[in-house]
Amino acid sequence: MCRIGKTSILVLLGLLIPLVNLFVFAYIWGEIAFAINRSRWYGILILVPGINLIIPGYLAFTN
Question: Measured at the alpha carbon of residue 36, what is the angle toward residues 29 and 50, in degrees to the nearest 5?
Fold first, then answer.
């Protein structure tokens, strides 16, 4: 995921810190969305229960 979003591997260290990992996870998904020419706000949507099941498929299968 870090390679797709063009983020540093050091960002993964943020996933080891409780509560910070939520924001790091949203940041990584936002960078992935930006890499495929979508808005970075999709990263925030990944934190919403229910929608987080739909967003990866939406990013993968839409133009």
Answer: 40
Amino acid at 15: L
Residue with tokens 């925030």: 44
The answer to whether 14 and 20 are in contact (CB under 8 A) is yes
* Band of residue 53 on the pLDDT scale cut at 50, 70, 90: very high
For 5-34, what is each residue's pLDDT tens digit? 778 878 888 889 999 999 998 998 998 899
Spatial CA neighbour of 35 closest among 11, 59, 61, 62:
59
CB 27 within 8 A of CB 11: yes
Residue 48 CB: number of other CB atoms within 10 A? 11
- In this prediction the pTM is 0.81
